[in-house]
Design goal:
Layout: E1 2-4, E2 7-10, E3 17-20, H1 22-31, H2 44-52, E4 59-63, E5 70-73, E6 87-92, E7 102-104, E8 107-109, E9 114-115, E10 121-122, H3 126-132, E11 138-142, E12 151-158, E13 161-169, H4 180-185, E14 187-188, E15 194-195, H5 198-205, E16 210-219, E17 226-238, E18 247-248, H6 259-269, E19 276-277, E20 296-297, E21 305-306, E22 324-325, E23 336-345
């Protein structure tokens, strides 16, 4: 217990409690609608720790007598008048919220991705972020175990599974023909068009194989009749930068599904073992960067698939430099792909 500003205060761990009038605690006990029960405490500091352990406890009454003498407010309990003179009421002072959190309604309101009484904890990925947050799909800040710092991610929950988007394109307004360094660090906005960045992707994957889902939205008849096709691959992994972020697909069997699923699968298989290339770091053979645009894993024929190429309004251009997935519906040169995404289950 320390003396501060004319009031006795307690600071058992993260929070600070200030001694106040006993009438405040007694009024709260009488008006309580919660079911926190009185407990036994050996000291006021012990009672303060008990209060800290209950969400929503903003004050407590501690009494110097045997039996149940710690009343976390709001707590249900009856205190006879003879014992009130040995009781002390402490009210929690507004704690300093960390990491951009704001004090609202007797608690710290954290920005998406942070949690804890003072927003002191950061989620390691989408599953943790959404479990502690508002459970809504959207942008969160995360910091995986081996990441250098925090970074934003776009999270989605489907059933009981959590997904992190590593690539998303909904328009041609963001330039994807960028440098090796840009693809390492990531670029764009997770709420719009973006590449998450290999540094971030590898920290989320933690040297594990993960499920990858690719989604393609196209205008099949160029008349505004859009359709979304998706494909899931269970065993997707990436090599590190020393190996040019090669796509590794341990199980490269055929898929059973619709024609479009099989065609998406076949285009992906053509990229297995291929290194990533950008305009300033061409690892492909032959030199696909001479005939394509955007950072990608280019196969031996250079133009089997590239979701980071420029958008067009008419399918593949004459120089193979527009966004494409060549085997999809066996007409990749004519299909106008309007939106794409790549997401991993984390």
């Amino acid at each position: 217990m320390v003396f501060a500003s004319g009031f006795w205060t307690l600071k058992p761990s993260s929070d600070q409690f200030q001694l106040t009038s006993i009438g405040s605690c007694l009024t709260e006990i009488r008006l309580s609608i919660y079911t926190l029960k009185p407990e036994v405490a050996i000291s006021a500091s012990h009672c303060a720790l008990t209060c800290e352990s209950h969400n929503g406890c903003s004050q407590f009454l501690y009494c110097e007598h045997s039996g149940k003498n710690c009343f976390p407010i709001r707590a249900l309990g009856v205190l006879d008048s003879d014992r009130r003179k040995y009781c002390f009421c402490y009210v929690k002072l507004n704690p300093k919220c960390e990491n951009g959190g704001e004090w609202k309604s007797d608690k710290c309101e954290c920005i998406p991705g942070f949690h804890g009484n003072r927003c002191e904890f950061i989620a390691g990925g989408c599953s943790q972020a959404m479990s502690h947050g508002n459970h809504r799909n959207g942008a969160y800040l995360v910091k995986p175990k081996h990441a250098i710092g925090t970074f934003p991610v776009l999270c989605e929950k489907v059933g009981s599974n959590f997904y992190t988007f590593i690539q998303r394109r909904v328009s041609g307004k963001t330039n994807f023909d960028l440098s090796w360094k840009s693809y390492n660090k990531g670029f764009g906005s997770v709420k719009w068009n973006f590449w998450l960045g290999f540094d971030q992707i590898l920290s989320l994957m933690e040297n594990q194989t993960v499920e990858l889902e690719i989604g393609l939205t196209c205008d099949l008849d160029t008349k505004g009749s859009f359709t979304l096709e998706t494909f899931q691959l269970d065993d997707f992994s990436l090599a590190g930068e020393d190996h040019q972020y090669q796509i590794q697909l341990p199980n490269q069997g055929t898929t059973q599904g619709s024609q479009s699923e099989e065609e998406i699968h076949n285009s992906l298989l053509s990229l297995a073992g291929q290194p990533f290339s950008t305009y300033d770091h061409d690892s492909s053979s032959p030199n696909c960067r001479n005939t394509t645009s955007g950072g990608w894993w280019f196969g031996t024929q250079c133009a089997f698939g590239n979701l980071n190429a420029p958008f067009t309004d008419y399918g593949l251009d004459a120089n193979n430099k527009s966004i494409l997935w060549i085997t999809w519906r066996s007409a990749g040169f004519e299909i106008n792909i309007k939106e794409t995404y790549m997401k991993i289950k984390t």
